[in-house]
Write a structure and sequence with these properties.
α2 crosses α3, α7 packs parallel to α9 and α25 runs antiparallel to α27. The protein has two domains: 322 residues, no CATH class; 125 residues, no CATH class. The chain contains 27 helices and five strands. Helices cover 62% and strands 4% of the residues. It starts with a helix and ends with a helix. The chain is mainly α.
Amino acid sequence: MYLLLCLLILCYVAALTGNRSERLDADAWEHHRVVLALEHELWRPGNPTYATDEPSIRYSPYSVALALIVRSTGIDAYDALSGAAVANTLLLLIALWWWLRGYGLEPAAPLVLLAAIFLYGQPPGYANSNALSDLPWHQVNPSAFALPLMIFAWAWLSRAKGRGLIGFAVGAGILLAVAVLSHGMTGVLGVFGLFFTAVGGGQHRWPRLAASMAACGLAFLVAVAWPWYDFLLAVGHSPDSWYWFNTVIFRRMLLVWCLPALLASAAALPMRDEPFIRTTLLATAGLVAVAFVGAAAGSPTLARLPLAGLIFPQAAVGVYLYRIGALDPLSWPTRIKQLLDRNQATMSKALLETLIAGLVVAMALPNVWLVMREPHLARRWVSPLMGREDKQPHHWEGYDALLSPHIKAGEVVLAQPLAGWPVPSFGGRVVGALHLEFFAPEQRERLDDSLLFFSPKTAHTDRTALIDRYDVSWLLLDRGYLSPEVFAELFQAGAVVSDDGQRVLMDAARWVDLIAPSLSPNP
């Protein structure tokens, strides 16, 4: 059954990941621009978002490997990321099975997988989510590559003993370095996961802890040697805390996204003598505790660990469902009868089992509904079957036709942050970004200036000053994000080089020339 589920999920991701560009705010845009930047200039690519020389923390082993594939094969960067999404999904599926097999729990793999893709209070749409409706557009992310590496490391540690711990320390150290360089939060999760695996396993606890510490030390040395960005600066740098740590997201993570899995995992407490259950429950409690410490300290990495580590409580729930025989149809008539049993213990046990199984099913429904209705998922195919109009936004085709014939590599486009988010995927750079870079300075000011330019209260003199300040070559107006009054105020027909009915691209220098008479003082 696990093989069948894996095949279905792989086909699902392969079929839908190409639609990810239909979501304008997707992380996938920034990962695509990173691969493009590295494809064009592998060693000194500059910043992929801004027209500056700072590197990007997204120049990771994952992105460099994809860029090397693109450079050597000529495959399009977008298609390379689509292939990576399938490969990352396959890695995750294999890692889950191998993790469980180390504890003799491989028959529980189907239920663990179902819990991992369905057991969310709401699909997060956030890094480290494995929710079904998030997979097609999130599996291109470096976090989707890093998580299976960490699961492999935990599985390896659960088996390692004696001299095998030396090989583990070396191998896991490399895996951990690749993970932390690719997605820092997932790498930090990996460190905590090693600790909880060693502590929860029972036997060989101290040797495994020592080997884990050695692996962490090796990982640190490898990460420091990484040439594409300064790892030590990344560790000690805390820029733009107003952006990276968000209390609203923290509350939503705990009280919506993670809550069903956190609560449901408590059902596995009677099984805590099993090493796997003990490990997953220790990790669940530990990561929640660390998250509160991280929130108090304003650390975005520590505060978001419960979402990154949600695989632990989800796995506990999956194993619990396996132990009660939730997939055995013959067990349910008896269980339903027990709900009416006069023996309180029997009735309570049956009720808990029914509630946990029902919770996974109930949480699956929003996922399936989103898959059918969202334009970046299956709506393109569902709409014709339902006799509905195809309302796909076709972002990729629209931006490509609008920008590619005109913009040269590295030229700056001034746009509202959301409307300008895809611009670097077509060679340009932006003034203010929807998602911030890590090393670039004055990003709050850049974001404010982007909004200021499109504000109805901004004078043309201030707008021309912003164009000069950021060396802007192009102006991008999006009718969907501007009031008719502001659009009319900014629109200059003589500066237009491209108009697709939704968005307008104008030459910034021509625009300045055309509005110049309005800047002159009255005689």
